[in-house]
Amino acid sequence: MASLQNSPSLHRTLLLNSFPQRHSHVHASPTFSCCTRRPSSFLVQASSTAASSSEDKPGRRQMLAVGLVFPSVSLLSQNSVSFAAETKKGFLPVLDKKDGYTFVYPFGWQEVAIEGQDKVFKDVIEPLESASVTVIPTSKEDIREFGSPQEIGETLIKKVLAPPSQKTKLIEATEREVDGKAYYTIEFVAKAPNYTRHALSTITIGNGKFYTLTTGANERRWEKMKDKLHTVVESFTVFNA
């Protein structure tokens, strides 16, 4: 997906210049520079190819999953809040204290480094199944200052979350509130010549930053994966950092 290939500067330009500008009396917050982490596991180049065989390969998955057990310990030990204890069975937690966000991802996914993304976890067998987080500076203090869920959803899927060559369709755009902070969640499909990705994104603003978490799967595996992917986006929360 193109969302895994955008550079931070391109993402920022497309995103902040695309939304309708609204007058606001909110004072601008200080901006922060975003960073791309390089995990110690390994580097995987972004790929726009279709997912490989849809058949599960238990032996390989189990070997990959075992490799995640010990790295996950450091994540859990850093978490002083109850978030880790509430993690659903079959998921692993992520806690980023520097940028101020948490979420969970399915057990068995591997962390990879993708240029322009703050965090990326993906299934190395089904490459369209992934979760990525982008963090960019903003002077806004609430996601609603950019517009409604529908407005922002249409803009993101057409100009940021999918390449221009893909045909996109917004399925649903909703708003939820957690501890007084607004989050928008959008569901969409992006059609390429040889595959269709069914995806979910959740976006919010906090700490002077615009956060986007996107997850998805090949359309042919959507029914199998949708509950897990909804768990990923619903788990994403931002805290003061």
Automatic annotation (TrEMBL):
It comes from the Eukaryota. It holds the Pfam family PsbP. InterPro entries: Mog1/PsbP_a/b/a-sand, PsbP_C. SUPFAM superfamilies: Mog1p/PsbP-like. Residues 89-238 form the PsbP C-terminal domain. One of its GO terms (biological process) is photosynthesis. One of its GO terms (molecular function) is calcium ion binding. One of its GO terms (cellular component) is extrinsic component of membrane. PANTHER family: PSBP-LIKE PROTEIN 1, CHLOROPLASTIC, PTHR31407. NCBIfam families: PSII_PsbP. This is PsbP-like protein 1.
